[in-house]
Write a structure and sequence with these properties.
Structural class: alpha+beta
Order of helices and strands: EEEHEHEEEHEHEEEEEHHEEHEHEEEEHH
Oligomer: single chain
Number of strands: 20
CATH architecture of the largest domain: 4-Layer Sandwich
Shape: globular
CATH class of the largest domain: Alpha Beta
CATH topology of the largest domain: Anthranilate synthase
Distance between the termini: 34 Å
């Protein structure tokens, strides 16, 4: 690990835990963080043929009273869906599944970030023109009746030298989140500042809260309030959100007791330092026979990052996007031996590789009345948690 003076972006930290480790923060409870370190076992699946055994090992670990903490990459969804088993699918640079099995987490206080949050320059993989070409293909699929919505994403590339936990602590000053954390279980390190829960299960009760619909923050309070109100009333954003609510209701219904799936609220606005987002709530009661493998097979990946219908959207994403998504649009989470589970949707999530390469993906939902320039701008707005400055300037 380089010295503090080796990078202008952020210092290394002497109080960072030794690898391998996972840190999860629950921003809803005053920044409570949990540290998982010194794993009893590392469970990994790099190939689709290894996934079933990995889930079996995860179930066995919880039966032994161990906690699981780690991540699933977006491409796990292709490995779980039989339709894709005979088709070529993107190969992720990160494992499909990577979890540590730990005796217990430790309550942990996140180190205080030293100095301002880092601003990391990023280079988009697509220019606006290149994005527009893929966008037009999405619109063609929509008007042909293949799909109602496609979540089109692309990577941005940068460099970072320093401790990933210091980067996380710096970035959370700019954008506090409810479902953040750092997973340092393999060669790569995942830093997630996700505001979106994928699902939480307490006993047999499960809830999901999809996030779809974005508006940039205003500079003055009146402008900011007007933009939030516009998002509430925007027919396009409401349609995007409702499509994903229906998709997740359908996914949960295959795992839930009959009649237990309920929508708790629709089109609720959550505000973050750089943007407003629209969310909705869904809950259900799981059947007693649902296993961990069943849960992921039925729900993964989250519909808010694919489009609808999910499987056809995933086929189009596979064909149009320029690289595997990796952990982005996958999920970071933890599983307790008592059955409590919490996973985020890995948006606002970046991956650091051993050669100091940083990959940060962004995306947006394309529907029939979307406009390419607006969607591209929305994607770049979502990268401001890392760049720190308006990316359209």
């Amino acid at each position: 690990m380089p010295d503090a003076d080796a990078s202008p972006l952020a210092p290394t930290r002497s109080d960072a835990p030794a690898r391998p480790y996972v840190v999860f923060e629950d921003g809803r409870e005053g920044g409570r963080a949990l540290l998982f370190d010194e794993p009893e076992e590392i469970i990994v699946a790099r190939e689709p043929s290894e996934v079933r055994d990995a889930f079996a090992r995860m179930e066995a670990a919880t039966t032994r009273g161990l906690y699981l903490a780690g991540y699933a990459s977006y491409e796990l969804g292709y490995a779980l869906e039989p339709k894709f088993w005979t088709q070529a699918t993107p190969r992720s640079r990160t494992p499909l599944l990577l979890f540590g099995a730990f005796k217990s987490p430790k309550p942990w206080t996140l180190p205080t970030a030293e100095g301002p949050a880092p601003n990391i320059p990023l280079t988009p993989a697509w220019t606006e023109k290149e994005y527009a070409e893929r966008f037009r293909a999405c619109i063609d699929y929509i008007f042909a009746g293949d799909v109602y919505q496609i979540n089109l994403t692309f990577p941005l590339y940068g460099r970072y030298e320093g401790d990933p936990l210091a980067l996380y602590c710096g970035l959370r000053k700019r954008q506090p989140v409810a479902y953040g954390g750092v997973a340092a279980l393999g060669d790569e390190t995942v830093v997630s500042l996700s505001p979106e829960v994928f699902f939480e299960a307490h006993g047999r009760h499960i809830r999901a809260r999809p996030m779809k619909g974005t508006a940039q923050r205003g500079f003055m309070p009146t402008e900011d309030m007007a933009r939030a109100q516009y998002l509430v009333e925007d027919e396009k954003s409401r349609a995007e959100n409702l499509m994903i609510v229906d998709l997740l209701r359908n996914d949960l219904s295959r795992l839930a007791e009959v009649g237990s799936v309920k929508v708790t609220d629709l089109f609720t606005i959550q505000t973050y330092p750089t943007l407003h987002q629209m969310t909705s709530g869904i809950e259900a009661r799981l059947r007693d026979d649902v296993t961990l493998a069943d849960l992921f097979t039925g729900l993964f990946p989250c519909g808010s990052v694919t489009g609808a219908p999910k499987i056809r959207a995933m086929e189009i994403i596979r064909d149009l996007e320029c690289a595997a998504r990796g952990v982005y649009c996958g999920s970071l989470g933890l599983i307790a031996p008592d059955g409590d589970i919490r996973f985020n949707v890995a948006i606002r999530t970046l991956t650091l590789f051993p050669d100091n390469e940083l990959v940060c993906n962004v995306g947006s939902a394309v529907v029939a009345d979307s406009r390419a320039a607006q969607e591209y701008e929305e994607c770049l707005i979502k990268a401001r948690f890392l760049t720190g400055t308006p990316t359209s300037d």
